[in-house]
Amino acid sequence: MSVTRIPAGYVPLTDAAPLIAAQEMGFAAEEKLTLELHRAPSWSSLRDMLAFGQVDAAQMLSPVPVAAALGLGGASAPLSVLSVLSVNGTVIGVSSALARRLAGAGHSFAFDDAVSAGRALLAAAGPDLRIGVPFPFSMHAELLTYWLKGLGAEMPRDIGIRTVPPPLMAEAIRCGEIDAFCVGEPWGSMAVEQGAGALLLPGRAIWSFAPEKVLAVRSAWADAEPGLAGRLIRALWRAGRWLADPASRGLAAEILSSRRYLDLPAEIIERALSGSFTVTAQGLQREAADFLGFHDGAAGFPWRSQAQWIALQLADRNGLDRAAALAMAGRVFRSDLYRDALRGTGADLPGASSKLEGAIGAPLLAAGESDDLSLLPNRFFDGRVFDPLAAG
Amino acid sequence: MPDALSIVVVETDRERAFMIVDGLRDAGEFDIQVISEPSGLARQIQMRDPDVVLIDIANPSRDVLEELTLASGPKDRPVAIFADRSEDGLSAAAVEAGVSAYVVDGLQPARLKPVLDAAIARFRLFQRMRTELAEAKRALEERKVIDRAKGMVMKARGIGEDEAYALLRKAAMDQNKRVAEVAQALVTAAGLLA
C-alpha cells in the first residue's frame, strides 16, 4: 500500500494536538497516511475549505456539522463526524474589573464549582453582561447558555453572546468590548499572561464530558472513501492515546509551540495538557483534573446522543422543530464508521451508540462490543439528565 | 433598473482596500464602503446594512460575520454565505482565491456575479503577491544561512569559497537534502557546540 496524502485543516489551539501529533509522531505514517496540515485563520474559513475540497478532513467545533445539518449558518456541504478529537478543554474568564468585583464580593476563584461561580458572576456583572465566544456554533456558546439560563438568567435579554476570534479575546476584554469570555486554550491563559483578565471556571464544570472538537469530513467523502476514513480514525485514535499519557505532555507542548503550528510559548500550552493553571495575573494557582481529554473514557467515540444534545440546544434557540433536529443530528455523528475502523484493534467500543448524557456521576464500567469499558463522569452542573429517546 | 448594489469591504490594509474598491468600480456601478477597524464588526455592518460583504478568508474576524447568518430580530436581514446560491463553481473559485462574500438573502445571483468576478480577480492578484513576497523572503533567508555555513566550512578547513560550497552541495546530494537544509543543520549544530 503506498502512502496517501490527506489535506487536513486545523485552527491553532491546544486541542489541535491530535491531528498534529498524528502527523509528527508517526501515527499517520503507521496507517500509510501523510497529513498535509493546513492552519486555518478562522472556523468559517476552515469549514469552507472543507466544504469546497481544499482539505478532506478538518478539526471542527462539535456543533458546526450539526448546525450545518440543521441548515444554520453559512454552510454549503453536508458534513459527517468520524470521531471526537477532544473532550472539554475550554475556560471561562472575566475582565480584570469584573475579577476585582468578584473578589470584593468574597469569591475565592476556586475554579471548580459552576453554581457558586455562576451566581457570583451574575451578581457582580449586573445587567447586560457581554460574553465573547469564538464562534456562534460552538460548545462554548452552548455551555454558556445552558449554564447561565440554568441559573435563572434571561437570555438574550440579560446576556449578550458575541463572537470574538480567540487570538483577539485578550484585546477585546482589555478594551471593554466584552466583560467575560469562554475560549479554548491557550487563549484563556494568554489573557491571564497579558494581564487582561482572570479565569473563573474550566468548561468541564458545566458539563464534565462535553465533546469539544470533532474530526469532520464531507459526507460525500466519507461515503466514497470508507477505507481512507478508517485509516484516519485509527491514526487519530492512536494519537489521542499517546496524548493522554502524562509522559507525552512535555513533548506535545513543544511540538505544538513550534512556529508552523501555534507559535506560542510551550509553557502556556502545557497548562491545558497538565490541568495546572495560573488563574489570575497575581499568579493564583489552580488544578483542574481531566481538563482536556483525548482518550480516556472512550473519548473518541462519536455518541449520537452528544450530537442530539447539541441539536436540541440549537433547535430551541433558533425555533426549529425538535423531533426533526434530533433525527437529523443522529446521522451526523458516524458511530458506525468509528466502530468499523477500530473493531479488532483493542480500542474500547461501547455496546450502544447513544447514552444518557448527564447520568454518569462516577467512573462507570459499561458493556462494550467485546470487553467492558470504563466511562467517565458526564454530569451537567445542575444534575439534569438528557435522554435522547424521551426528548423531542 | 434596480438601485446600485451596496457593498461593504472589510479590509484593514489601506493599500489592499483601495485595490479592491478600484477593481469593483471597474466592474460596475456599486455603492462601496470600506471597514478598516475590526472592533464591533457585526454592529458596524448592521448599521450600514449592505447587500454584500466581502472579506479576506485569512481575516480571523470573518467568524464574527457568521453571527449575521442568524437573524435575531424581525428587522434584521439574514445573510447567507454566497456559496448557497452561486453557480458555475464561482464560490469554489472565490474560496480558493481567498475571498468570502456574505450576501443578503434574496439577492439575485446574476447581480452578484460581476461583484464576485471582480473580487476574485483582485484576491488572486493578492495571493500571487503574497506568494512572491514569501518566496523572495525565504530565498533571502536561505542565502544568508548558506553564506554562514560556507564561512564556517572555509574557516574550519582552510579552503576557498567555491570549494566550501561544493562540499555543502555534495553533502546535500549524499543525504538527499537541499543545500539550505544542510547549511541550516550546520549552523544549528555550531550554535549548540559554541
UniProtKB/TrEMBL annotation, chain A:
SUPFAM superfamilies for this protein: Periplasmic binding protein-like II
Primary location: membrane
Keyword Cell inner membrane: yes
Localization, UniProt: Endomembrane system
Keyword match RNA-binding: no
Gene3D superfamilies cross-referenced by the UniProt entry: Periplasmic binding protein-like II (3.40.190.10)
UniProt entry keywords in alphabetical sequence: Cell inner membrane, Cell membrane, Membrane, Transport
InterPro entries from the UniProt entry: NrtA/CpmA_ABC-bd_dom
Protein name, per record: ABC transporter substrate-binding protein
Species: Leisingera daeponensis
TrEMBL record, chain B:
Domain Response regulatory positions: 6-120
Modified-residue entries (4-aspartylphosphate), positions: D56
Matches recorded under SUPFAM superfamilies: CheY-like
Domain ANTAR intervals: 126-187
Alphabetized InterPro entries for the sequence: ANTAR, CheY-like_superfamily, Sig_transdc_resp-reg_antiterm, Sig_transdc_resp-reg_receiver, WH-like_DNA-bd_sf
Keyword flag Glycoprotein: no
The entry's keywords: Phosphoprotein
Record's protein name: ANTAR domain-containing protein
Organism encoding this protein: Leisingera daeponensis
